[in-house]
Prior knowledge:
23% of the residues lie in helices and 26% in strands. It is an alpha+beta fold. The chain has a single domain, classed as Deoxyribonuclease I, Chain A (4-Layer Sandwich). Helix 3 (119-140) packs parallel to helix 4. It binds one DNA strand through residues 9-10, 12-13, 34, 36, 60-62, 112, 114, 152, 206-211, 250.
Amino acid sequence: MKIATWNVNSVRKRTGNLVAWLQNAKPDVVVLQEIKAQEAQFPRLEIEAAGYKVEIVGQKGFNGVALLSLHPVEITARALPDAEADEPARYIQGRIATPKGPLTVGGIYLPNGNPIATDKFTYKIAWMGRLIRQAKALLQAEEMFVLGGDYNVCPTDLDVYDPKAFANDALCQPQSRAALRTLLNLGLTDAVRAFHQDAPCYTYWDYQAGAWAKDWGLRIDHLLLSPQAADRLAAVGIDKPERGRPDPSDHVPVWCELDLAA
DNA sequence: ATGGTGGCGGTGCCA
């Protein structure tokens, strides 16, 4: 079972790249972030033609998440607990049957939080608190789950090309990192770091200033696994070539494989 | 060089 996350930065601008990647990478389940589309604007027919079921939590112009699956999926949440009436579209959660029991996949678009001296950063930290509570609730079921997405947090300085330049950035604040550690300390596994402890493993390169050509990257897209999922973690990958294609997203897909053979 | 790029929507905001 291959599970992937990708911040596509507009699904309409990225439809061609997305379909080509789906056909090549063949993930079983994908969570998308920043689709920047409402339900009616989503390229549903193109994705379904590639064999995927499509579930969307859309929003006009900004944010927006989706869950694509080759297998039947039951949507179990479209927002985190305590959502406001005008809650931005940043969370989707589905449940998929596997030979080893049900697998829950959550798709996360965590608030960026910049600039840090504003209510945007306060909102980010509060949102992380709600995500921690959701993870606690999921853990109580003692089932397999994967929380994938754009976390907008660099867990350590290893995950930043220039830590000094990002000292005042919301993605690298001690509060942001502490909240992510709280999530991990519940018993979740950062899938990429389970396999790669020493390499940066960037997942994002800014469009500006030639960041891609200079490998000025950040690792902010993560797959966090419950103990039951981590026990079956077989492989991970970061599809870096996607950043070098024409009309790329500024993020690349991150994926993991769980060994769920019957 | 106080910029730069990209997406949305049709002007600045967001990242």
